[in-house]
Amino acid sequence: VEDCARCRSWLTHIDEATRALSLRTVSQPAFVDTALDLWDARARQADVARRAVGRVLLGVAALGCLIVGLLIAADSAGHTHIGVTAHREVLILEVALALGLALAALRPHVFLAGILPILGIVALVNLAVSVVNVASGSNLLAEIAHLPFLLGLIGAFLVHRAEPISIAGRTAPESVVRA
User: Sign of dihedral through CA atoms 114, 117, 122, 126?
Assistant: First the structure.
């Protein structure tokens, strides 16, 4: 075989063909980058929509808490019995939560982390008490005053899902935020 020119030519040809067919790294097709960019753009649009709806719900909840607080203040005006202290304390809570919700709606990246756990507890306890009251025969409309807390909680979760929470100036890593 070594003495035959045609055989050597054939072996050389096979060697060249083998080198040409050897495995090489393949670059990504351009459509993959386009699809990933589109995916990211849609995710950003969904985050923007969630953030907007959540902030509106936080604002509505703040307004609702403020209205409930004003109604409590109007109800206790002119009363001098011991129940006025309880009314004042509820009024203080309503106004404090209204201000917290308003701040979270205006600057969620700063205030949402602080109000979310408190709002969650208040909303869930109010929901549980409302369910018990309605089951005991209370008028459903009498429980409507607790609706702002629920709206605020829904809004807070929507904003939380769309925006990284920062605590003490540090933003959570993306993997933690989306988990």
Answer: positive
**DSSP characters over 75-120:** HHTT--STHHHHHHHHHHHHHHHHHHHHHHHH-HHHHHHHHHHHHH
Residue type present at position 99 = L
Give the C-alpha separation, 62 to 110, whole Å: 17
- 179 has a pLDDT exceeding 60: no
Tens-place pLDDT, residues 125-136 = 888 888 888 898
pLDDT tens digit sequence for 80-95? 454 556 667 777 888 8
Alpha-carbon distances, residue 76 vs 73, 82, 85, 86 (angstroms): 5, 11, 9, 10
Residue 1, SS3?
A: coil
Within 8 A by CB and 6+ apart from 171, the residues are 164, 165
Terminal CA-CA length for the chain: 66
Helix (H) / strand (E) containing 167: strand 166-167
Most confident among 39-43, 119-123, 157-161 (mean pLDDT): 119-123
Inter-residue contact 104 to 58 (CB < 8 Å): yes
